[in-house]
## 1
Amino acid sequence: RHPLATFFHLFFRVSAIITYLFCDWFSNSFVACFVTILLLLSFDFWSVKNVTGRLLVGLRWWNQIDEDGKSHWVFEAKRVPTIAASTEAEARIFWLGLIICPVIWTVFFFSTLFSLKLKWLALVIAGISLQTANLYGYIHCKLGGQKSISRVTSRFFVTADVPKRQTRRISEDCTEEHGKMGAR
């Protein structure tokens, strides 16, 4: 069990969101609010990427630059079942926090955009970027990297496309039969 890791997995995320919502009430300084929220988002990104993902679900990812200057994402999953590394509740907390927070920052993006508070837009975009980078990395880890994701998505689109192809085939058959009948 990793209660401290679970606490910090949520602490920085929730603190950044709460600070974003209520910062104007406690401070008149835009710069102080901006820097505080950005630091909380950065602490969250680092702790999730380097500590809590490894402890709570047995996954980690990183980005490497090879000698040619090309960027490569590396995804790693423990071979030991994740239940042995943490409890089921910790894993649920990890994934819920990882998924819900980017959604919240996306809502903040649209509310900031529509309320024309454009000075906050850069901060919200940074929040979305940091949160979705972690989400992207951990989804790749969970599914086994790029090859598994491409297989999963291709299977999804193939199965989603089957009814369309069947419908198209049936409608083509009907038009062919109708065309033959009309030609006689």
## 2
Amino acid sequence: LRMTASIFLPFPAQEVLDNLKDRWYQADNPPPDLLLNEEEFLSFLHPEHSRGMLKFMVKEIIRDLDQDGDKKLTLSEFISLPVGTVENQQAQDIDDDWVKDRRKEFEEVIDANHDGIITMEELEEYMDPMNEYNALNEAKQMIAVADENQNHHLELEEILKYSEYFTGSKLMDYARNVHEEF
């Protein structure tokens, strides 16, 4: 397959195309020839299953969040994601919850050695689809939603009632989820 030059498109479409071009070039292993063989095309379609693409995604995240250029993330850099402009108390509560969740994620999950800094290696381990945290977190969330009687068990009726929720989960379609998030 060959990536060809883009035409001028409206901004959102152009942004999507530029993103795809970046991934295409990243999947095109040296020497770059703008042609993707089977392995390179698999990396393009499913970057989450490619070590090289996973490293690329980690570098992109670090680049976007690293304010001091040390190629590591502090807690303040990590929680500086789009918190947004607060217009009212409800928005402030949402922002506060978001910061609280990111702080917990930083301290308890991503910062493996608990030194207050996320390295590229720690972020790569966290983003790896084989990391058990991703599956465990999704399973807990799914059970919390479907467990209507709050007995910490799923009954057949609850499973049937929420069957579409289960089959549309990130666990069931991890590749789609990763593509949408990045």
